[in-house]
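Example for tutorial group B:
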């Protein structure tokens, strides 16, 4: 039994570390409405920064990678570590940026699980996933 459990645990770790498009469970259309909350600080339509960096191609993009945008210490670190924005990392980030990112500059939190899933589906769709 122990052996089987170990294999299962290993498979879960692998599944968790690779977030593929099929992990996207949200509704992109509903997510477009949720994204209105983000628009005060972000655009996903063109490479133009507002309070926050532009989100063109954000799904699958390495954290902290918009040239000329002054990121927090934490996002610069994630950039150097090669952290990529995907279902897993965005699900952790959006409800509480300050808990994930050292000296986070994003003051906004998206707390409803469905809205998080939907907005991720929208970001992925807009990024061509
Ligand atoms: C009040 C302004 C504000 C709002 C609203 C906001 N953000 Fe942000 N966002 C920021 C700022 C500022 C940063 C840069 C954070 C840093 O440097 O720590 C950021 C960074 C990000 C990043 C990381 C970008 C990168 O290049 O690594 C993502 C992803 C993101 N925001 C998604 C969202 C989404 C999705 C929403 C809506 C649900 C949202 N944000 C709402 C201000 C905002």
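The residue assignment follows.
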């Amino acid at each position: 039994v122990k052996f089987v459990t170990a294999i299962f645990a290993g498979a879960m770790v692998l599944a968790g570390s690779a977030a593929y498009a099929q992990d996207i469970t949200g509704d992109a259309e509903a997510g477009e409405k949720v994204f209105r909350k983000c628009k005060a600080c972000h655009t996903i339509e063109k490479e133009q920064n507002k309070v926050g960096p532009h989100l063109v191609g954000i799904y699958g993009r390495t954290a902290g990678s918009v040239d000329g945008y002054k990121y927090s210490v934490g996002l610069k670190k994630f950039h150097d570590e090669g952290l990529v924005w995907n279902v897993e990392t965005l699900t952790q980030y959006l409800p509480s940026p300050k808990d994930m990112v050292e000296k986070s500059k994003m003051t906004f939190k998206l707390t409803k699980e469905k809205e998080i899933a939907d907005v991720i589906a929208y970001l992925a769709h807009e990024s061509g996933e």
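The chain has a mean pLDDT of 90. Compare this with the pattern of hydrophobic and polar residues in the output above.
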